[in-house]
Amino acid sequence: MKKSIDAPLVPLAFIFFGLASLFSAVKTGTVTNFIVPVIFLSLAAIYLHTSLFGKYRIISSVVNELNIKSDAQVLDLGTGHGAFLVEIAKRLQRPGKITGIDIWNKQDQANNSFENTKKVISEQHLTAVSELLTADMTKLPFANNSFDYVVASLSIHNVKPAFKRQTAIHEAYRVLKAGGKLAVIDIEHVGEYQKVLTKLGAEKIVVRNSGINGMYACLATKVLTASKPHRF
């Protein structure tokens, strides 16, 4: 599938300042002046590695850990270009299905659109087990206990302010079936999600770092997994 850059203005800013400071350092000829451009350009390289390669490795690892059954009903919050959706859809067979929702904000991901993601799904021959919707994760258009799995990758942190992010977690938990699993990959506010899920009564809440594959410059990607108890 076609890869894209998350929040593309961020690495562009690193590259711009890196090159500008490099030009200045070359002009002055002072060795210590090369420290700043090296830092900026290194941050850009790390960011681009994670955005174009690392995040896909993290998603693949998380999907393997979830051990998703072929007939599962799955919800993907903030689908974007469909990295999570495609990885999961490959493991499904009808009546299994993954539903991806997004508001298709291009600032969060380059060329993010319903049409582009629909084309990706079609090219991967996954239309039979996939569905795309335009919907807000803080107001999910689904009944309680609808999905065996709810997943989200680098999307919930874009919801502002904090009470809306908490609403998104509430909604994700609401539509999750008893015994279902939630997996969130994100660079910010993961501790906040953990607290909300604890209050909601979630079980087996685990948060872990993703290492070099999840470094967006100075921001580290974390993976949160949780289960909804059967007694819920």
Automatic annotation (TrEMBL):
<feature type="transmembrane region" description="Helical">
    <location>
        <begin position="34"/>
        <end position="54"/>
    </location>
</feature>
<dbReference type="GO" id="GO:0032259">
    <property type="term" value="P:methylation"/>
</dbReference>
<dbReference type="InterPro" id="IPR029063">
    <property type="entry name" value="SAM-dependent_MTases_sf"/>
</dbReference>
<dbReference type="Pfam" id="PF08241">
    <property type="entry name" value="Methyltransf_11"/>
</dbReference>
<protein>
    <submittedName>
        <fullName>SAM-dependent methyltransferase</fullName>
    </submittedName>
</protein>
<keyword id="KW-0812">Transmembrane</keyword>
<feature type="domain" description="Methyltransferase type 11">
    <location>
        <begin position="75"/>
        <end position="183"/>
    </location>
</feature>
<dbReference type="GO" id="GO:0008757">
    <property type="term" value="F:S-adenosylmethionine-dependent methyltransferase activity"/>
</dbReference>
<keyword id="KW-0808">Transferase</keyword>
<keyword id="KW-0489">Methyltransferase</keyword>
<keyword id="KW-1133">Transmembrane helix</keyword>
<dbReference type="InterPro" id="IPR013216">
    <property type="entry name" value="Methyltransf_11"/>
</dbReference>
<keyword id="KW-0472">Membrane</keyword>
